[in-house]
Write a structure and sequence with these properties.
With about 290 residues, this protein is an alpha/beta fold. About 35% of the residues lie in helices and about 20% in strands. Helix 2 packs parallel to helix 3, helix 3 packs parallel to helix 4 and helix 5 packs across helix 6. It is globular, with a radius of gyration of 18 Å. The two termini are about 15 Å apart.
Length: about 290
């Protein structure tokens, strides 16, 4: 247990997550990235994006990643070799063209449930193995036009309906959200009304500038208080060169600090495409998580 009065939990580092599939320079899941000492390793496929009509979202989602590179067969092969690996589908998108802005909330919910279910079943029905091919979904909108209440209601209902659907409920064991500083009210409300259905909070620390390690740690502690959970909050790091390198270094140093005080469950990285083929940041972070 930490002696730091602001940290009350004794958190074991258990998870590493990696976004993948947003570009075409990777032909398969990079198994050489995986540290087998990690208790749980997630590949997050990005993205399932929706169709828009006159700038309004329809809830009709289609995958944008290469089905050839990240096929059901490749997922099955990966899981057979690495039992701690899970594969999650990310819903939304990080560009300004991928806004959460439904034409009609009820229609959006209906279409979203149907189209996301179809994507999941495309994987599950293609290859039969002893476990699921898809393990869950990630909610990742970086641009939201709708109100806080509309976002939390629509997304919350989609998550609940998919979890209750007998055809895909077994593929909905993991649900994560990916908040940013600007959209904190939207994601916080979603979490607070759906916390029993949300397993991980992938906060995008890399979208913010930090002048010191302590500044990062202070924000982490604040978010723990906001979300009222010490065990679900993950620190996000980016491999993209556009991210201020000094901030990235401070985030990594901050992760070391939190791990030394049993206060960090894990990290996630955006994304494999930008770090291939060395995956040096991923390796560094996994070593920190598995260090005795």
């Amino acid at each position: 247990m930490s002696s730091d009065p602001d940290i009350d939990a004794d958190v074991k580092p258990t998870i590493f997550r990696e976004y993948i599939g947003m570009e075409d320079n990777i032909d398969d899941f990079p198994a050489n990235m995986i540290n087998d000492n990690i208790k749980e390793f997630h590949f997050i496929l990005g993205f399932a994006t929706e169709l828009y009509v006159d700038g309004k979202g329809t809830g009709e989602f289609n995958r944008t990643w290469s089905i050839e590179n990240f096929s059901p067969e490749n997922v099955a092969k990966l899981k057979k070799l690495h039992r701690q690996v899970k594969v999650v589908i990310s819903i939304g998108g990080i560009g300004h063209e991928y806004q959460f802005n439904p034409q009609n909330n009820e229609d959006w919910i209906t279409n979203a449930v149907s189209s996301i279910k179809e994507i999941i079943l495309d994987y599950e029905n293609e290859v039969i193995i002893d476990e699921n091919i898809i393990d869950g979904i990630d909610i990742n909108y970086e641009n939201i036009t709708s109100s806080v209440d509309d976002f939390s209601n629509c997304i919350g209902q989609v998550i609940q309906k998919l979890k209750e659907d007998p055809d895909v409920s077994k593929s909905m064991k993991i649900v994560s959200i990916a908040p940013t500083e600007l959209l904190q009210p939207h994601y916080l409300k979603l979490y607070l009304v759906s916390k029993d259905n949300i397993d991980w909070i992938d906060y995008k620390f890399y979208n913010q500038y930090f002048s010191s390690r302590d500044e990062f740690v202070s924000l982490f502690k604040k978010l723990v208080t906001d979300y009222d959970t010490e065990f679900k909050l993950l620190a996000g790091v980016s491999t993209y060169t556009g991210i201020p390198s000094e901030s990235q270094g401070l985030i990594v140093d901050g992760c070391k600090y939190l791990l030394s005080r049993a206060s960090l469950a894990g990290v996630f990285v955006l994304d494999a495409n930008a770090s291939a083929p060395a995956y040096s940041l991923e390796r560094q972070l996994q070593e920190l998580l598995t260090k005795e």
